[in-house]
Amino acid sequence: MSRTSSTARVALVAICVLAACDSNTGNLTVDLETDFIAGVEFTSVRVEVTEGAFASDAPLPNAIETVAGVARFVPGRRVGELRGLLLGDHLVRVRLLDALGVVLVTRLVRVQLRDSYALTVVVTRDCAGITCPEPGDEPALTTCLRGHCADPICADAEVATCPTVQCTASTDCVATSACVRPLCAEGACLQLADDSACAADERCDVTLGCVLRPGVEGDASLPDAGAGDACPPAELGCTNETDDDCDGLVDCEDPDCFDVTCDDSLLCTTRDRCGAGTCTGLALPCDDLVPCTVDACEEGMGCTHTASDALCTDMPGGTCDAVLGCQYPTCTPATCAPIDGCDAATCSGATCVHASTCTAAQTCCGGACRATSCDDGNPCTDDSFSTTTCACVHTNNSVTCNDGNACTTPDRCSAGRCTGPARSCDDSNTCTTDAYSTSTGCTHASRAAGTSCGGGNVCCSGACVSLATRAHCGSCGATCSSSRSCVTVPGRSGVYTCTCGANSECQGEGFGGMATCYSGYCDCQCAAASPTTCGGQCSSSASCHELSGHNYCQY
Question: Is residue 196 classed as helix, strand or coil in its secondary structure?
Answer without folding.
Answer: helix
